[in-house]
Amino acid sequence: MEAAAKESSRFLFRISSCVMLSAVAFAQAGQGAALPAISGTASNAQPATTPKPDTIDARGHDNSYVIGNDDVLSINVWKETEISRSVPVRSDGKISLPLVGEVQAAGSTPLRLEQDISAKLKNYIAEPEVTVIVQQVNSQKFNILGQVNRPGSYPIANTATVLDAIAIAGGFRDFAKKKAIYVLRQNSDGRQTRMPFNYKDVVKGKNSEQNIKLQPRDTIVVP
Questions:
Q1: Of residues 151 and 56, which shows the higher confidence score?
Q2: Which one-letter DSSP state was computed for residue 60?
Q3: Is pLDDT larger for residue 31 or for residue 70?
Q4: What CA–CA distance (Å, rounded) separates 88 from 86?
Q5: Per-residue pLDDT reduced to its tens digit, 162-177
Q6: Three-state SS string across 129-195, please?
Q7: Which fold has domain 57-136?
Q8: In principle, which of 28, 65, 136, 152 could form an S-S bond with 72, CB 3.0–4.6 Å?
Q9: Does the domain spanning 141-222 belong to CATH 3.10.560.10?
Q10: Helical H runs in 57-151?
């Protein structure tokens, strides 16, 4: 009887030991699983996915468009509201700004003009930050006058020709002299060049070189 009791006690002790060991192992396993999850969350924190400010795309400058007379420019000088403003390019090709004075704008690109204005402001402002945006394009136009249905001034496309201009203006009126059309072009020296355009020949495939590519401020005259 006593031997049976001892054997029963040993059996219960082994079961209790197994249960305790299993509980400890389970707790350790749970802790081991939880720790990598916390560590993994920390290693994948925001700095790994958020770009630094200096890596953000800031391509706001234009180095292809050539500024012309009558264009309206938006000049912004960072933290200098008294200087920042919209200004038209005068007929002499210049603009005026406080502290800067007169600056040649026509013939320059917005990026180059930014650099020119910044250079003049360095006498008054440490490290000036200047942005130039073409707010209104008024210089890139051609004129068409005379015997067309819609004479006037029109924005010019990169590939616009005399034929394109006539089409944009709605075609000819009844008494247009289609053989006597000409284009007036302003030269750099201020003089005008007169170039003939015989519409009837050009549409027949003759004298196709007369169908020139238009330039800003060209004037087409249809008698």
A1: 151
A2: -
A3: 70
A4: 7
A5: 999 999 999 999 999 9
A6: CEEEEEEECCCCEEEEEECECCCEEEECCCCCEHHHHHHHCCCECCCCCCCCEEEEEECCCCCEEEE
A7: wza like fold (3.30.1950)
A8: 136
A9: yes
A10: 110-121
